[in-house]
């Protein structure tokens, strides 16, 4: 059973599989260029000391996104 | 035919060791500049490959070749328009998947390609095994070379491969990405149409152009429109609609996914990874450095350390350089001039008082920059800089900047010059510009002597309050400028995404550090030699030319009778609403452009009279041997002092904790002026009311940064940006000074 969340709703250590990248224009393209496309598994590693941005692990590397950016990405929990 | 020249383009993601490879290939034969019209660094170099003179162009580090960022556009346009003979794609072997995504786009461009698996040692340590042969096959026969850039391993293999590829007549990889049945069908239709338009051949290969049209790539669409092929655009947009409707995704998304699927297939065939999840050393470091509680204190401690390094630890070397230029160097030049019979003439005055003092005054910043660049290089190469941005982003975002802006702003309290150069660490051009722009309002060390003299003269024991208020005012103006800029000139700029890679922590290698530091410092020195030279001569001329008959001769005229005095008198009334409309203030402010602490020197010269001699005139001149041993001894002393300063950071830091106090940075020794300020204080009290003194200091804080900082600004951002800054700072300074004086007068504060 899986349900749809956005990437910012993951808990540290939790993974999700990307189903859809929202947003538009340059930001959306940048997210996809960094490997955030449908089907990829992403794990939330931690939040910054002030709660935002967030640090993720995907495709074997670490990527930092702001909460607002992570909200545009839908994931299925695993 | 003359010796043939080959061109090789180095491409790759940021942080993959491209620069190291570039340096290893080209050695010292390189040129560092900017890409035309951009603040993005361009590096070119040459080396000998077989019988060819080979040019290497280091493309900006990018993750993609989309047309969205400046760096991506530069890299892409270069490859399409300049047709390099080979593209060497450098990838991080320990992070192959995301790195190969960029490579797929070079395959799409049908460029002759060589793949360099850099940092193969790190991949090996992490248990990642890559089969270069399999990888090469999957990439359509693209030659694959393994290197360890930091140790120079694999360099000869790369050269041999390059030579072989050139001799065989380089060809593009024999592989095409598969974008799926539906997209491929539309793609081939569009491709045929493009191929029939001959004029489009210059813009790229037909398949690539078709792909870009389906991606709705702004740059390619614009180029096609310019050629008048609107039917092509119509066809493409129809296809986009059709594909989006039937598949539920737009072609841009489908194409990006297809690239990543290609990469995933390639990697799964050629790479084996350890089964178990390995917690690397980098992960352990990171869990402390960006820790929920320790993250911020660690960040502040790092920034404080960098600030101390640039502001205090470098100071002894700065003094040493200063005394070297104004002592032995000035004396040497004087002796040389004497040989030519020019002693006591205006030529001597021009060279010593104008050129040596002016250019020297800027060259003394070299030690500061060396320290700054070393610190920055360590922060960047180790991977900490990205974490600093991660930790600070939340706070800096509120003024329209991102986490990396903090460091330049902090350095600004020491000196504006390194602060401007520190903005290089920011990724986006707008962020770089805005950060440098507001960094000038961070009160630098050279402004402190001015506050100190006025504070002591007018407020005695309460002088600290004046100094503290001025620092705060500078910060407030900087914040306000940032917020206003975000709401006005950057209002329509798309929000800068904070999509930032956090690279693994690495030990910086000495070789890389030296290269970084040298590249950046030498750039500054070259600028100092040209722009500042002309400024210094101009100011010297102003001081030397008498304006009316009978007041003196060329180079022998009192300040008030020189062109300088006249200009000051003309400017002075402008400052009347701020309470200091006399020519003496205006004149001192003019000279303050050379360096702000010069204001005090000028004031004591004008008010008290009698200039301090720069070089000893009639004393026994030291011999060459004595000069050299003097230079060496003082260098040794500077080294000892620097070591002391370095150790001093700890007590200084501890002192901070019980009471907050303003950083005590001092770039130039203010001691000489402080010793005999008695008469100056008296003179100041006679010509300024306390309120006017405050207004004057506010003006000193905010008005144009010194010549060196202005030059740095022009060096980094161009003449137009520099002009904006000059205009803005003058207006802000004037308005603030007038407000202080007028409001103060209304309230009747400090008018007597």
Structure summary:
In chain A, 17% of the residues lie in helices and 41% in strands. With 78 residues, chain A is an alpha+beta fold.
What is the secondary structure topology, with strand pairs?
The complex is a heterodimer of chains A (78) and B (752).
Chain A (H helix, E strand, L loop, with lengths): L3 E3 L8 E7 L3 H9 L7 E7 L6 E5 L2 E5 L1 H4 L2 E5 L1
Antiparallel strand pairs in A: 1-6, 2-3, 2-6, 3-4, 4-5
Chain B lengths: L4 E8 L5 H9 L3 E5 L6 E9 L2 E7 L11 H13 L3 E7 L3 H13 L4 E6 L1 H6 L3 E2 L1 H7 L5 E3 L8 H13 L13 H15 L10 H9 L3 H9 L3 H18 L3 H20 E2 L8 H9 L5 H19 L1 H25 L6 H18 L2 H17 L1 H14 L8 H7 L3 H7 L6 H11 L8 H12 L3 H25 L12 E2 L8 H35 L7 E2 L2 E2 L5 H9 L11 H9 L6 H11 L15 H33 L14 H5 L2 H10 L2 H13 L4 H11 L1 H29 L5
How would you describe this protein?
The complex is a heterodimer of chains A (78) and B (752). Chain A is α+β, with helices and mostly antiparallel strands. Chain A has a single domain, classed as SH3 type barrels (Roll), CATH 2.30.30. In chain A, 17% of the residues lie in helices and 41% in strands. Chain A has a 6-stranded antiparallel beta sheet. Chain B has 752 residues and is α/β, with parallel strands linked by helices. Chain B has 3 domains: 5-167, Rossmann fold (3-Layer(aba) Sandwich), CATH 3.40.50.300; 181-272, Helix Hairpins (Orthogonal Bundle), CATH 1.10.287.1770; 283-752, no CATH class. In chain B, strands 2-3-4-1-5-6-8 form a 7-stranded mixed beta sheet, with helices on both faces. Chain B has a two-stranded antiparallel ribbon with strand order 7-9. Chain B has a two-stranded antiparallel ribbon with strand order 11-12. In chain B, strand 5 (86-92), helix 3 and strand 6 (113-118) form a beta-alpha-beta unit. In chain B, helix 19 (416-422) packs parallel to helix 31. In chain B, 44% of the residues are buried. Residues 610-618 and 662-676 of chain B have low confidence and may be disordered. The interface between A and B is large, with 33 and 42 residues. Strand 5 of chain A pairs antiparallel with strand 10 of chain B.
């Amino acid at each position: 059973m899986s349900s749809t969340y956005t990437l910012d709703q993951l808990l540290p250590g939790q993974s999700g599989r990307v189903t859809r990248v929202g947003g538009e224009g340059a930001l959306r393209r940048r997210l996809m260029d960094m490997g955030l496309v449908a089907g990829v598994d992403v794990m939330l590693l931690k939040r910054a000391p002030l709660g935002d941005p967030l640090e993720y692990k995907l495709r074997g590397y670490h990527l930092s996104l702001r909460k607002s950016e992570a909200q545009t990405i839908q994931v299925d929990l695993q | 035919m003359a010796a043939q020249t080959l061109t090789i383009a180095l491409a790759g993601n940021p942080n993959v060791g491209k620069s190291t490879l570039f340096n290893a290939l080209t050695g010292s034969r390189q040129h560092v500049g900017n890409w035309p019209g951009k603040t993005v660094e361009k590096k070119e170099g040459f080396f000998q490959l077989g019988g060819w003179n080979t040019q290497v162009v280091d493309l900006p580090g990018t993750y993609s070749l989309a047309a969205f960022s400046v760096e991506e556009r530069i890299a892409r346009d270069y490859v399409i328009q300049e047709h390099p003979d080979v593209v060497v794609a450098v990838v991080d072997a320990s992070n192959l998947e995301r790195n190969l995504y960029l490579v797929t786009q070079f395959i799409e461009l049908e460029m002759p390609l060589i793949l360099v698996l850099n940092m193969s040692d790190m991949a090996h340590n992490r248990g990642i095994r890559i089969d270069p042969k399999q990888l090469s096959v999957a990439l359509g026969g693209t030659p694959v070379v393994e290197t360890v850039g930091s140790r120079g391993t694999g360099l000869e293999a790369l050269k041999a491969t390059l030579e072989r590829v050139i001799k065989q007549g380089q060809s593009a990889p024999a592989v095409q990405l598969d974008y799926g049945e539906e997209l491929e069908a539309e793609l081939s239709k569009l491709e045929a149409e493009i191929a029939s338009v001959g004029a489009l051949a210059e813009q790229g290969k037909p398949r690539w152009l078709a792909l870009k049209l389906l991606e709705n790539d702004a740059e390619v669409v614009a180029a096609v429109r310019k050629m008048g092929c609107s039917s092509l655009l119509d066809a493409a947009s129809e296809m986009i609609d059709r594909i989006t409707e039937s598949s539920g995704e737009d072609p841009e998304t489908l194409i990006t996914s297809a690239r990543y699927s290609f990469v995933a297939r390639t990697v799964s065939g050629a790479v084996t990874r350890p089964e178990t999840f390995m917690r690397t050393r980098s992960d352990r470091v990171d869990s402390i450095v960006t820790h929920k509680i320790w993250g911020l204190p660690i960040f502040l401690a790092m920034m404080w350390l960098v600030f101390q390094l640039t502001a205090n630890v470098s100071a002894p070397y700065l003094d040493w350089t200063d005394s070297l230029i104004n002592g032995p160097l000035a004396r040497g030049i004087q002796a040389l001039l004497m040989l030519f019979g020019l002693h006591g003439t205006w030529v001597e005055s021009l060279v010593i008082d104008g050129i040596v003092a002016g250019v020297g005054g800027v060259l003394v910043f070299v030690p500061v920059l060396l320290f700054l660049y070393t610190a920055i290089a360590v922060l960047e190469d180790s991977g900490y800089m990205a974490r600093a941005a991660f930790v600070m982003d939340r706070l800096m975002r509120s003024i329209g900047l991102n986490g990396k802006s903090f460091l330049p702003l902090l350095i600004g309290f020491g000196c504006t010059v390194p602060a401007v150069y520190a903005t290089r660490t920011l990724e986006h051009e707008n962020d770089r510009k805005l950060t440098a722009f507001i960094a000038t309002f961070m009160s630098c060390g050279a402004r402190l002597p001015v506050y100190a003299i006025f504070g002591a003269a007018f407020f005695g024991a309460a002088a600290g309050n004046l100094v503290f208020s001025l620092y705060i005012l500078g910060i407030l103006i900087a914040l306000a400028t940032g917020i206003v800029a975000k709401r006005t000139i950057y209002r329509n700029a798309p929000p800068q995404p904070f999509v930032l890679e956090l690279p693994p922590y690495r030990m910086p290698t000495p070789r890389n550090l030296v290269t970084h530091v040298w590249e950046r410092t030498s750039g500054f020195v070259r600028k100092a030699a040209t722009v500042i030279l002309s400024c210094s001569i101009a100011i010297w001329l102003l001081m030397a030319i008498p304006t009316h008959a009978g007041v003196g001769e060329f180079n022998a005229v009192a300040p008030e009778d020189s062109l300088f005095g006249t200009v000051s008198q003309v400017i002075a009334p402008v400052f009347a609403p701020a309470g200091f409309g006399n020519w003496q203030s205006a004149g001192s402010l003019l000279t303050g452009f050379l360096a702000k602490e010069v204001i005090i020197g000028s004031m004591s010269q004008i008010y008290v009279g009698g200039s301090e001699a720069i070089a000893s005139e009639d004393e026994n001149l030291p011999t060459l041997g004595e000069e050299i041993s003097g230079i060496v001894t003082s260098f040794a002393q500077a080294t000892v002092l620097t070591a002391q300063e370095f150790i001093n950071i700890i007590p200084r830091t501890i002192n901070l904790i019980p009471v907050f106090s303003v950083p005590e940075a001092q770039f130039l020794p203010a001691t000489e002026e402080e010793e005999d300020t008695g008469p100056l204080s008296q003179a100041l009290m006679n010509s300024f009311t306390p309120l006017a003194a405050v207004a004057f200091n506010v003006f000193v804080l905010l008005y144009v940064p010194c010549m060196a900082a202005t030059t740095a600004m022009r060096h980094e951002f161009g003449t137009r940006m520099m002009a904006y800054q000059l205009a803005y700072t003058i207006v802000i300074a004037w308005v603030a000074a007038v407000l202080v004086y007028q409001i103060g007068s209304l309230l009747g504060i400090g008018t007597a």
